[in-house]
Here is the input.
Amino acid sequence: MHPPNGPSVAIEVTRGARPMLVLRRSIGQEDFEERFELAPGGILRARRDVQAAVNVLRRSLRLTLEQPADWEGVERGLRELYTVGTATLHQLFGEDGLPRFINTLHDLLPELNSAAGGLPEIQLIADTDTVLPIELLPALMTAEERRPIRDYPTLQESASRFLGFSANVRRHIRGGRVTHPPLAQIKGSWVNVFPNAAGLSVSVFQNATLGSVSIEVGSLQSYGVPHVVVLGPWPGPEETTSDPDGIIAKILCENPARPGEFWPHVLHFACHCRASDDPTEIALLLQGDQPTSGVDVRLVELEARSGVLRIRRPTGEASAPRLPLVFLNACSSGASEPLTGASLPAFFLRRGYVGFIGTETAVPDEVAAEISSKFYDNFLGGRSLGQSMWLSKWSLLRRYRNPLGLLYTTYADGDIYVEHALERNLDHDG
Here is the structure.
C-alpha cells in the first residue's frame, strides 16, 4: 500500500445567500466544474453531528495499542459514524443533489479505492468557519449495503467508504498564505523539499503529564544525528519556572539560526490543547517534568506577538526564515471556534508556515504516539507528506483495528519530501 501520488480535484465551499459546494478538476486542456447547492445551516450542523459521532467511535474502542480492538467495538463505532455521516450528506445535498455529487466525484476520481492510478488528492478550500469534515464523511458506496465488521476484510471495506481513508485530503483556508519549500530534483522530478543534508530539524514542545510523550519524543530521538536533530523538548526538565515569552519566541521562530533557511523544519507538539467557543481561551497546554514548569500559550498571545513582529520588521530586511511545518499532535488541535472561525491552523497558515497537521477531536495518547511514529518513518524514508500521513492511518487500522487515524487533518501540500531520504530500512508496515 505505497501508491504514488495520483490525480486531484478541488472542492470549494462558497458563501452567499445559499452556500455552494463547487467541484473542479482540470482534465487535459479542459477545466470541469460542477456546482451543488448546500442546505442553509447545513455546514454547522454537519460539523456538530459528525463530532458527536466521532466521540461515539472513540469511546467504543476501549483499547490500548497493546491489543487490537474487539470487532464489536469497532463495528459499533464505525456504524455510528457511517449512519450519522450518511444522514449529514443527505441534509447537505438533498435527495437529488447527493447522488449527483457522489457520481461526479467518482467520475472525476475513478482511482478512488484503487491503487492502480495512485493515491488521489482532494483539496478542500473553505473559510475557517465553513470547513466541512469531508475526511469523516462516507461519500463512497453509500448506496450499497454496508456489511457488518467481523474481520479485517470487512473492516477495510467499511473504512474505505470514508474519504479520509481513500484519498489524501488537503485542506486550504481561504486567504491563508501558500508557502512552498525550495525545489530539488529527486529521481528525475522536481519536487518541493525540506533541505535536510544536516538532518531534519524538529523542535519539540511537550506536556510531560501525558504518558505517551516519552515514547513520542524517544521515537524522534531514536533516528539519531545526523538524520534527525531534536531541539528541546520544551519546557525542559531544568526549567522550574514558566517561561511563556521564551516558548512563544520559539514557536514564532523569532531568532532563527540561519535566516532564509529552514530552522527548524518541523514544530512538533506532543501536548494538550484547549479548544473553546471563546477564542481568547484557545490554548496550547505545555508542561515540563517539574510541577512549576507549566506554560499555557494562548492563541491570542501568539497573534499579539506575531503582530508586533510584523510592525517591527524593517522594509527591505534580509530574507525572512522559511517557517516550518506544524505537527500539533494534541486533542482538538485542528478544531475551530464556530462563530468566528478562530483556530490554531488558521493562525499558522495566515502567517506563512509551510503547513499544519492536527486533530479534529480528542485522540488517545497511544494513538497519537503511533501516528507520529509511522508518519516520520514514512516521511524520512522518502514518501511524500500526503502519502506519509495516509500510510500512518492505514498502519493503525491494520495493526490494531483502530480507525481513529480519520481524526487527523492536513493543511499542507501533500507533495513535500525530504531532500535526502534515509537509506536504512524503516518500518513502513507494508
Summary: Residues 194 and 360 are 26 Å apart (CA to CA). The two ends are 6 Å apart (CA to CA). Confidence is low (pLDDT under 50) at residues 332-342.
